[in-house]
C-alpha cells in the first residue's frame, strides 16, 4: 500500500441540520500502486448556536457541537463503500427529558445533566457490481423522487425545522435504517429493490420493502414508479377495535424480496394484511437549466378515480410539485431558485392496525416531515459568488432568501400515530378551519467559505401567524 496525502477537503452539509452524507475531497488516502484499492479518510468539527423565541414559549438557546468522521473508497472497481459517524453534544437552557432508548422516543440520547445530552449517529453503505446485477447493502438513508423541499415517498436525510417540533424531549432528525437490495440496468430502464428494517418498539419486528422502476426518456425526461409494503408486529398495549388488527409475532416476509412481483398482488396471497402504497414521480429537464418535477403517493385508495372523493377516509394521497431554475449566470455570480407546493391528505402515513404499520421509524415520518393533513408552499432564491485570489483560493460566498406558508391540522387524522377505528368517521376533512394552524416563515442565510477547510454560516427566520417569533442561528466548521 502507498500512503497519499492530498492537500484539500470540501465538506458539504445542511444548514444547522448537518447531514451525515458528506461529499468531500480526500485529505488522507491510502492507495495501492495500481489504484485498485483505495481508502479515504476525513474529519470535521462543527459547532452551532440557535436562539429561538416563539409564541407562548420563553426564549431558549441551543448549542450543538459535533465531531464527524468519514471513510470511503473502493476495493476493486466493483466494490464501493462509504461510512460516516457523528458524535454530538447539546447544551440548552431548557430542561432535557429522560430518554430510555425506546424507538418511539426518537433517536436515542444520553442525558448528562438537566441541560446537557450526548448522542451519536452513523451511516454506511456498500455496493458490489456483478455486471448483470448490482448488490446493495447498508445502514443508511434511502430517498426517492425529485422533490427539493418535501419528499412524499422516501425523504432520506431530508430534514426541515418545524416550530411544532421545537422540543428537547426528542431529536427530530431522521434515522438511518438497515437494508439490503439489488439493482438491474437494461438500457434506459433501472430496476431497484430494497428490504428494510424499521424501529417502532424495542424487540418488535417492523419491516418495509420498496421496489422502483426508473425510465429515462428522450428530451431529458425521467419517470419513476415505486411501490412500498410495510408491516410489523402489534405494538399497542391497549386492544385495537379493528377486527384485523392482531398481528402478534409478525415476521419478515421473504416473498417481498422476489423481484418484479407487484406488492399489491403479493399482499393478497398473504392475507391482505399489509400497508401497501404506490408512487409516481416525474422530472422534466427538456429546457436547459430548468426543471419541472412532481411526486405523487397513493396510500390505500380504492381506485385512481376516487382520489378527490372525501367521502371515504382511506382515499389517502400526498403530492409535491415544483419548478426550478438553476445556474443563472449574472456577471461573476450564479443564481438559482425554485418553488414547490406540497399537499398531504388526512390519514396519509397512518394505518388502522397501529404503530407496526405506520410509515415511520424512530418516531419520524419516512415521508415528508409535515405529516398528514398539511400543506406548504415554499420558495427559495440563492446566489453564489466565488472569489479567486492569491490569499483566498477558491473562496465562496453564498446567500439565500426563502419564504413559506404552512398549514397543519392538529385534529384527529393529523398525526402519524392516529389510528382510525370503526367508531371514527368514514369521511375526511382537509385542513379544518377550527383545528388548523397557519404560519408564514420568511428568512435568509449566508454561508462564507474563505478556505476549503473552514466554513461559517448565519441565518435568521421570522414567523407570523399561529407561530409568532424568530429563530436566529450562527455556526461554523473546520474540516480536515
Characterize this entry briefly.
With 480 residues, the chain is mainly beta.
Structure in words:
The structure is a single chain. The chain is mainly beta. The protein has a single domain, classed as Porin (Beta Barrel), CATH 2.40.160. The protein is 1% helix and 51% strand. The protein has one helix at residues 263-269, and strands at residues 2-5, 28-31, 37-54, 60-75, 79-92, 110-113, 116-129, 134-140, 143-144, 154-155, 177-186, 189-197, 206-217, 221-232, 275-284, 290-299, 316-330, 333-344, 360-361, 364-365, 374-387, 395-409, 436-451, 454-465, 469-479. The strands form 3 sheets. The protein has an 18-stranded antiparallel β-barrel. A two-stranded antiparallel sheet has the order 9-10. A two-stranded antiparallel sheet has the order 19-20. A hairpin with a 2-residue loop joins strand 19 and strand 20 (364-365). The two termini are 22 Å apart. The model is unreliable at 1-24 (pLDDT under 50).
Largest sheet: 18 strands, antiparallel, barrel
- The topology string of helices and strands comes to EEEEEEEEEEEEEEHEEEEEEEEEEE
Global structural class: mainly beta
Query: Averaged pLDDT, please?
Result: 90
Supply the number of structural domains. 1
CATH architecture: Beta Barrel
Oligomer: single chain
**Can you count the beta strands?**
25
Cα gyration radius (Å): 23 Å
**Which CATH class is shown?**
Mainly Beta
Secondary structure tally, helices: 1
The CATH topology, please? Porin
Kindly state the percentage of residues in helix: under 10%
Q: Per the principal axes of the C-alpha atoms, what is the gross shape? A: globular
Task: Tell me the β content.
Answer: over 45%
Low-confidence residue ranges: 1-24
Q: CA-to-CA gap between the ends? A: 22 Å
Amino acid at each position: 500500500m502507498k500512503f497519499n496525502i492530498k492537500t484539500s477537503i470540501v465538506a458539504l452539509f445542511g444548514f444547522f441540520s448537518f447531514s451525515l452524507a458528506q461529499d468531500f475531497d480526500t485529505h488522507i488516502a491510502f492507495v495501492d500502486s495500481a489504484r485498485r484499492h483505495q481508502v479515504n479518510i476525513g474529519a470535521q468539527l462543527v459547532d452551532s448556536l440557535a436562539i429561538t423565541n416563539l409564541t407562548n414559549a420563553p426564549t431558549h438557546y441551543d448549542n450543538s457541537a459535533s465531531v464527524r468522521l468519514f471513510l470511503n473508497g473502493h476495493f476493486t472497481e466493483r466494490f464501493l463503500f462509504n461510512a460516516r459517524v457523528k458524535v454530538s453534544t447539546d447544551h440548552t437552557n431548557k430542561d432535557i427529558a429522560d430518554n430510555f432508548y425506546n424507538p418511539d422516543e426518537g433517536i436515542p440520547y444520553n442525558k448528562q445533566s438537566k441541560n446537557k445530552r450526548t448522542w451519536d449517529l452513523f451511516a454506511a453503505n456498500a455496493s458490489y457490481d456483478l455486471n448483470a446485477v448490482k448488490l446493495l447493502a447498508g445502514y443508511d438513508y434511502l430517498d426517492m423522487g425529485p422533490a427539493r423541499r418535501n419528499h412524499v415517498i422516501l425523504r432520506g436525510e431530508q430534514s426541515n425545522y418545524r416550530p411544532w417540533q421545537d422540543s428537547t424531549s426528542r431529536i427530530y432528525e431522521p434515522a438511518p435504517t438497515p437494508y439490503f437490495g439489488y439493482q438491474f440496468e437494461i438500457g434506459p430502464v433501472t430496476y431497484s429493490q430494497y428490504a428494510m428494517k424499521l424501529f417502532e418498539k424495542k424487540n418488535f419486528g417492523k419491516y418495509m420493502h420498496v421496489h422502483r422502476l426508473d425510465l429515462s426518456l428522450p428530451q431529458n425526461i425521467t419517470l419513476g414508479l415505486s411501490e412500498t409494503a410495510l408491516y410489523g408486529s402489534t405494538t399497542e398495549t391497549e386492544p385495537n377495535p379493528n377486527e384485523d388488527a392482531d398481528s402478534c409475532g409478525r415476521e419478515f416476509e421473504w416473498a417481498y424480496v422476489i423481484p418484479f412481483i407487484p406488492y399489491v398482488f403479493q399482499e393478497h396471497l398473504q392475507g391482505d394484511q399489509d400497508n401497501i402504497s404506490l408512487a409516481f414521480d416525474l422530472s422534466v429537464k427538456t429546457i436547459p437549466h430548468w426543471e419541472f418535477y412532481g411526486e405523487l403517493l397513493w396510500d390505500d385508495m380504492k381506485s385512481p378515480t376516487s382520489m378527490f372523493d372525501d367521502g371515504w377516509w382511506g382515499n389517502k394521497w400526498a403530492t409535491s410539485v415544483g419548478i426550478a431554475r438553476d445556474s443563472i449566470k449574472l456577471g461573476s455570480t450564479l443564481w438559482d431558485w425554485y418553488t414547490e407546493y406540497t399537499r398531504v391528505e388526512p390519514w396519509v402515513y397512518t394505518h388502522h392496525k397501529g404503530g407496526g404499520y405506520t410509515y415511520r421509524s424512530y418516531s419520524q415520518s419516512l415521508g415528508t416531515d409535515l405529516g398528514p393533513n398539511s400543506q406548504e408552499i415554499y420558495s427559495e432564491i440563492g446566489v453564489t459568488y466565488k472569489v479567486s485570489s492569491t490569499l483566498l483560493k477558491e473562496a465562496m460566498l453564498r446567500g439565500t432568501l426563502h419564504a413559506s406558508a404552512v398549514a397543519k391540522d392538529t385534529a384527529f387524522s393529523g398525526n402519524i400515530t392516529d389510528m382510525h377505528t370503526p367508531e371514527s368517521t368514514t369521511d375526511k376533512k382537509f385542513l379544518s378551519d377550527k383545528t388548523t394552524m397557519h404560519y408564514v416563515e420568511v428568512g435568509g442565510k449566508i454561508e462564507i467559505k474563505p478556505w476549503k477547510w473552514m466554513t461559517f454560516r448565519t441565518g435568521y427566520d421570522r414567523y407570523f401567524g399561529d407561530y409568532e417569533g424568530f429563530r436566529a442561528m450562527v455556526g461554523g466548521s473546520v474540516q480536515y
